[in-house]
Amino acid sequence: MPSKKIIVTPPMLAQFPTLFEPLTARGVATIFNRGAYPLDEPGLIALIDDAFAAIVGLDPISARVIAACPTLRVVARNGVGMDNVDFDATNRAGVLVTAPLGANSTTVAELTLGLAIALIRRVVSHHMIFQTGEWKREQGSELEGKTLGIIGLGRIGKKVATRALAFEMRVIANDILPDHAFAEKHDILFVSFDELLAQSDFVTLHVPLTPLTQWMINPSSICQMKRGAFLINTSRGPVVDPIALASALDEGHLAGAALDVHVNEHQPARALIHRANVITTPHIGAFTREALWRTTQGAVASIVDFLDGRTPAGLMNPEVLKEAR
Question: What does each C-alpha distance from 240 to 211, 260, 286 come to in angstroms?
Fold first, then answer.
């Protein structure tokens, strides 16, 4: 083992010191990032130094970072998105990458339903108006009887589905690897992408960012959406073309949108700000105490597994396991 040190990039994880005790018991020093987050490449390289493992959030695990950190053996994501990891680089270097799969599914699913309610009842716009002292009400509607279209019926999408069914919504879904057993059990209908867009009163996105999903919601797909529908994105910002979305809102084709993720993680698209029918939040989907606890616990457990000679939990690139030993 080149060193007995790991680095932790999300500063908020320092609030869970007891979760790192299994590493301390094995003689591992834990170094927390106390500065800006997410780190850029130079900052990440400087912090990793000679560490053998890193618990990271949205920081770029790029080819440059991997090349500059030859002692690195394990990268444990404190989340489930993998679009910030260059797997070609980690695989060439024999670096294991792990993720706490399912650890934040409940938190993201709950936010999704909360955003749906906020949109259809115009909660945010009513709040802003009432804060000015004006008593003005706009008629909303109910979730019951509405059709929810879930694009990506994976761990998060399934939890969204069961919660939507509790509101007596009709749920349809589209997924490249459909789980027919789950769908049959919960009376969920798998449909084509085009059919989902045409039928849904709400379209909610729960897909990873890949070449297949980037700009999935674009001028063409938005035109296929039901007039007066709502769009919710708690997956990754570049899945949605913000200019196309803004145009659809301007034209009245869509009734509203809720975006927890953005093309630029630090600010919403200029075309989508100052709109009463658009909710923008700063990527809070997995940002609850419970989810942070579970994801941190999972990340630490994967590093403990590595130290103890076991296959790390949540291993995303098992093909390099032998080279990493």
Answer: 13, 12, 19
Would you list the domain boundaries of the chain?
Answer: 5-103+288-324, 105-280
Length of the chain equals: 325
The domain defined by 5-103+288-324 folds into Rossmann fold (3.40.50)
**pLDDT tens-digit series, residues 186-233:** 999 999 999 999 999 999 999 999 999 999 999 999 999 999 999 999
Catalytic residues: 236, 265, 283
Tell me if the domain spanning 105-280 has CATH number 3.40.50.720.
yes
Backbone angles phi, psi at 110, to 5 degrees: -65, -40
State the Cα–Cα distance between residues 20 and 135, nearest whole angstrom. Answer: 51
Distance from C-alpha of 291 to C-alpha of 81, rounded to nearest angstrom: 14
pLDDT in tens, 143-186: 999 999 999 999 999 999 999 999 999 999 999 999 999 999 99
